[in-house]
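Dock zinc ion; give full complex structure.
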Amino acid sequence: MELFNRCPEEERWRSLPSWGPEPPAPSGHSWRSLMGRALRLARRAARRGEVPVGALVVDASGRILAEAHNETECSRDPTAHAEVLALRRAALAAGNHRLGGCVLVVTLEPCLMCTGAIRESRVSGVVFGASDARAGAVMSCLEGLDYAQTGSAPWSYGGVEAEKCAAVLTAFFREKRPQ
Ligand SMILES: [Zn+2]
């Protein structure tokens, strides 16, 4: 099964076409414009030596509740992925640990830890950019949003500005890798 073949590092960050019907974007936004904002966060992460992934949480009215990028290096925290930080900040901003009606927008397909956090947050949906052939847990390696038999799984929609999201990661790791 292709999923369990180890993919070469240079093919890890993928820009797959989006699939299925595009969910309606929150008032005043398009998914592309929201992903552009997440991409700016990812580029900021790269400048700080962090793996360039950016995320934001937007509520149904179009209000951006929180933004974040990876901070695992600077905070010495293996769980400080952009998604986890954005969800934490959004819950604080909303005054509620349940974020029903909100959508998480993130430049990279979430990992297993983050799909767990996404489910716990009760966001309604996840929009992501590039796919991660080695660790993506929405559809690449696992279907981590759908595993639990409690509550309802958030919807997911991937491939938004995927080429740009993948390019930021490819460039970052190319620079870090010794020639
Ligand atoms: Zn993660």
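Observed: The mean pLDDT is 93.
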